[in-house]
Specification:
Layout (H helix, E strand, L loop, with lengths): L5 H24 L7 E5 L6 H17 L3 E5 L6 H8 L7 E5 L2 H8 L11 E17 L7 H10 L5 E4 L5 H13 L4 E4 L3 H10 L4 E5 H10 L2 E6 L24 E9 L4 H15 L2 H7 L5 E2 L4 H21 L6
Parallel strand pairs: 1-2, 1-3, 5-6, 5-7
Antiparallel strand pairs: 3-9, 4-7, 4-8, 4-9, 4-10
């Protein structure tokens, strides 16, 4: 029996470890190596976030010539999907569709199942989608200035609908209340559709709905659209003036990006970032998002991470101030 000294074993182990390092690097550089990529989204099929996920999966699959699938893991404002990726593999086979909840949920929920600032790496913002401020058609106001005046003359008498507590639709109304100095009552629904139905029926006074959901009703005159929540007009719906023209600095958007679990090799992160930015420039993607009145972004990882940081500061301050919590 051959005896192996401690020194020989240590030297051999170190050599084996060193030999493995280039191989790991090669795997990262060859990503995705024909592996199936799962694009995980925290909302059900059919909504804007799901569409963003399917565009992302489709275009990365084409660029990489590799199979991609979308997994809908709905619940807790996107927390369940983000948690799955945050506790999943670090080989790039799971890509998270990052929603605004990454910035708002830590302030809305008493306990998070993962650390939003440490467990996920934002790599690129894919798209942005504004909300549209609409009022019931018989409300005696025709623009944002008149709405503010009406609300101040009738404090607490106006109510605004939302798709649920803590959603961008709800927070749009809360930010408007603060910045415009008005008092309105929030009415939460289980989803955008029932809220919009009651706005159409006149049971609620106004709503900051995702423009995708409400634009056809606004254009047909079933509701009165007073303003878009982006800072500037969008070429996709140029008839709507920004609320910010009356309330300077007012801005709320729904947005989507891609992220991976912390610890994913830099080479893989760089690949996902670069190719996400690439497909966001494709005319096909712009055309695909146009019916949603959404615009592709394709930011760098540094830009997206700074954007998420600013969103946390903005919404964290508001949510804390109004003591908003989801039980």
């Amino acid at each position: 029996m051959t005896k192996i000294s401690r020194r020989t074993f240590t030297t051999g182990a170190a050599a084996a470890a060193a030999a493995a390092l280039p191989l790991a690097g090669a795997r990262a550089q060859g990503y995705p190596n024909g592996q199936t990529i799962k694009v995980v989204v925290g909302f059900p099929p059919g909504g804007a976030q799901d569409i963003f996920a399917r565009v992302t999966a489709d275009r990365l699959g084409v660029l990489w010539n590799t199979p991609t699938v979308v997994e809908n893991v709905s619940g807790a404002g996107g927390n369940l999907a983000m948690d799955r990726v945050a506790k999943g593999p670090t080989d790039g086979t799971q890509i998270c569709i990052l929603p605004p909840g990454i910035a708002t949920n830590p302030f809305l929920y008493n306990k998070m199942p993962f650390d939003p600032e440490k467990d996920l790496i934002p790599l690129s913002q894919v798209a942005t989608l504004p909300n549209l401020l609409c009022v019931r058609k018989d409300l005696p106001v025709n623009n944002v200035a008149e709405l503010i005046e009406y609300a101040k003359n009738n404090p607490g008498k106006l109510n605004f609908a939302s798709s649920g507590v803590g959603t961008t639709i709800h927070l749009s109304g809360e930010l408007f209340k603060k910045m415009a100095g008005v008092n309105m009552v929030h009415v939460a629904y289980r989803g955008s559709a029932p809220a919009l139905n009651d706005l159409l029926g006149g049971q609620v006074d106004l709503m900051f709905d995702n423009i995708t959901s409400v634009i056809s009703q606004a254009r047909s005159g079933n509701v009165k659209a007073l303003g878009i929540t982006s800072l500037k007009r969008t070429a996709l719906a140029p008839e709507f003036a920004p609320v910010a023209e009356t309330v300077p600095g007012y801005e709320t958007t729904s947005w989507s990006g891609v992220a991976v679990r912390a610890g994913t090799p830099k080479e893989i992160c760089d690949k996902i970032e670069a190719d996400t930015r690439k497909f966001c420039q494709e005319p096909f993607v712009r055309e695909k998002l146009a019916p949603l009145v959404a615009e592709p972004v394709g930011s760098s990882a540094a830009e997206f991470q700074e954007y998420v940081k600013q969103e946390r500061q903005k919404w964290g301050s508001l949510i804390t101030e109004i003591k908003l919590k989801i039980e």
